[in-house]
Amino acid sequence: MSTSTNAPATGIRANPDATRRRTIARNNAEKRFRAYGIGAIVIGLFFLAVLGYSIFSSGIPAFSKTVVEIDFTLSEEQYEAAEGQLFKTKAYSQYFIQSLQQRMAGSAENVEFTEEATERLLGKVGSTLREFYRENTDQLGQPVKFSLAASSRVNGYINGRITRDSMTDSRFLMRSDLDLVDVLRGNGIIQNVFDWNFITGADTGVDNPGAAGIGASVIGSFFMMLVVLVLSLPIGVAASIYLEEFAPQNRFTDLIEVNISNLAAVPSIVFGILGLSVFIQFMHLPQSAPLVGGLVLTLMTLPTIIISTRASLKSVPPSIREAALGVGASKTQAVFHHVLPLAMPGILTGTIIGLAQALGETAPLLLIGMVGFVATGYPESFMSGFVEPNSAMPAQIYTWAARADYSFYEKAWGGIIVLLCFLAVMNIAAIILRKRFERRW
Amino acid sequence: MKMDSNKIYKSEAATSHLPGMLHEAAKPKMRGENVNVFYGEKQALFDVNLDIGANEVTALIGPSGCGKSTFLRCLNRMNDTIDICRVTGKITLDDDDIYDPKIDVVELRARVGMVFQKPNPFPKSIFENVAYGPRIHGLSRNKTDLEEIVVTSLRRAGLFQEVKDRMHQPGTGLSGGQQQRLCIARAIAVSPEVILMDEPCSALDPIATATVEELIDELRENYTIVIVTHSMQQAARVSQKTAFFHLGNLVEHGDTDEIFQNPREERTKNYITGRIG
Question: What is the pTM of this model?
Answer without folding.
Answer: 0.78
